[in-house]
Recover the amino acids of this structure.
C-alpha cells in the first residue's frame, strides 16, 4: 500500500511515542503496552467511546490489539467493534497492526461451544475472522488449558491453523507449567513455534513466577504478556479514598468490595506514597513495575476512556527502579 507523505510523518510520530520489545527469540516486536479489548469494547459501551480509545492507542504507537471470541458484552461484540473500525478507518493500516484473538472459554451453547477440541478451536476462529472482517489474525491463542481434550489434539489443531494461513503465530494463555513445556516442544517440532504466553500478573498477583511459568518461558526464550496489570482496578488509584459509586467494586463486577480490607487499603496508600515519590501515579508505577520484569514482553491494559489510556501510556517512559524501590514494593505488596 502506498502512503502519502503525511502518513509517513504521522507514522514516525506514532512510533516515537512507544517503545517495543522482541517476543522471546522470535522476529515479532510488540509495544511495551498493548490494548486489551476485554472491557469497554462491547454492546454496553457507545461505539464513539470505544473508537476514541482504540484510535488514541494506535496514534501513540500501540500496534497490538488483543481480543477473544467471547469478549464483550455480549460475546463476540468486541470483535464486531474491531471489524467495523477496520472497515471504516484502520483497515489501510492493517499491516501496521498486530491483532490477536482466542478461543477455549464458553462461547456458544452445546457441546462444541467451549474448551479446546479441534471442532471448537477451528469453528471459533472462523467466526472471529468473520466478525473482524479479516482473512487472518496475527496471533491465535488457546485461551485456557483443557483437561478433557487430549493435549496432542489441541496442539495439532494449533499447528494446522498456522498451516492454513488463518493465523501467523500461536500463543497459549492460562496453561500450567507442565502443559506449557509439552506445548512448546510439540509446536516447535511441528513448525509452528509458540510465540507468547499470556498470564495474569501484577504487584499483588505473581502466580506465573511462583508456579514456574516465567522460568519455562525464560529458558525456552518465549514471550510473556501480562493481563490484569492493575489487579482489576485495585492498583488504579480509584479506591484510595473509598469505593466510588460507578466503580467495578461498587457493582461487584470482577472486583469484590470485600477485597478492600483495612490491611489492603493500607498497602495501597503505601504504594501510592512511593509512586508519588517517583513522580508517578499508582497506576503508572504498577505498569512500570511489570515492564521492569525481564521476562515481560508487553503489558495488556484496558481503559474506560481515552484520558485514562493516555495517562497509563506515560508509564512507558518511567524512570528505572532502584533496588531499594523494588524491595519496598515487595515488602508492602507481600506483607
Amino acid at each position: 500500500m502506498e502512503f502519502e507523505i503525511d502518513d509517513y510523518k504521522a507514522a514516525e510520530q506514532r512510533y516515537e511515542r512507544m517503545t517495543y520489545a522482541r517476543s522471546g527469540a522470535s522476529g515479532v516486536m510488540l509495544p511495551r503496552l498493548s490494548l486489551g479489548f476485554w472491557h469497554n469494547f462491547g454492546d454496553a459501551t457507545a461505539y464513539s467511546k470505544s473508537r476514541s480509545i482504540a484510535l488514541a492507542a494506535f496514534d501513540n504507537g500501540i500496534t497490538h490489539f488483543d481480543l477473544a471470541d467471547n469478549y464483550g458484552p455480549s460475546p463476540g461484540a468486541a470483535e464486531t467493534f474491531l471489524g467495523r473500525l477496520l472497515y471504516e478507518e484502520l483497515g489501510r493500516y492493517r499491516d501496521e497492526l498486530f491483532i490477536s484473538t482466542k478461543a477455549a472459554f464458553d462461547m456458544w451453547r452445546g457441546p462444541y461451544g467451549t474448551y479446546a477440541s479441534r471442532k471448537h478451536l477451528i469453528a471459533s476462529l472462523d467466526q472471529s475472522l468473520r466478525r473482524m472482517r479479516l482473512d487472518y489474525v496475527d496471533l491465535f491463542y488457546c485461551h485456557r488449558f483443557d483437561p478433557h481434550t487430549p493435549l496432542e489434539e489441541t496442539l495439532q489443531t494449533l499447528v494446522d491453523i498456522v498451516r492454513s494461513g488463518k493465523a501467523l503465530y500461536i500463543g497459549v494463555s492460562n496453561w500450567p507449567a507442565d502443559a506449557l513445556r509439552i506445548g512448546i516442544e510439540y509446536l516447535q517440532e511441528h513448525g509452528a513455534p509458540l510465540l507468547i504466553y499470556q498470564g495474569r500478573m501484577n504487584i499483588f498477583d505473581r502466580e506465573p513466577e511462583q508456579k514456574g511459568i516465567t522460568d519455562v518461558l525464560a529458558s525456552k526464550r518465549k514471550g510473556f504478556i501480562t493481563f490484569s496489570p492493575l489487579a482489576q482496578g485495585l492498583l488504579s488509584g480509584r479506591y484510595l479514598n473509598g469505593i466510588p459509586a460507578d466503580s467495578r467494586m461498587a457493582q461487584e463486577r470482577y472486583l469484590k468490595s470485600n477485597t478492600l480490607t483495612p490491611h489492603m487499603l493500607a498497602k495501597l496508600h503505601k504504594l501510592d506514597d512511593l509512586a508519588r515519590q517517583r513522580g508517578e501515579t499508582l497506576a503508572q508505577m504498577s505498569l512500570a513495575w511489570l515492564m521492569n520484569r525481564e521476562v515481560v514482553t508487553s503489558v495488556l491494559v484496558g481503559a474506560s476512556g481515552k484520558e485514562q489510556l493516555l495517562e497509563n501510556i506515560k508509564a512507558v517512559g518511567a524512570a528505572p527502579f532502584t533496588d531499594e524501590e523494588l524491595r519496598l514494593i515487595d515488602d508492602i505488596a507481600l506483607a
Remarks:
- The first strand starts at residue 20 and ends at 22.
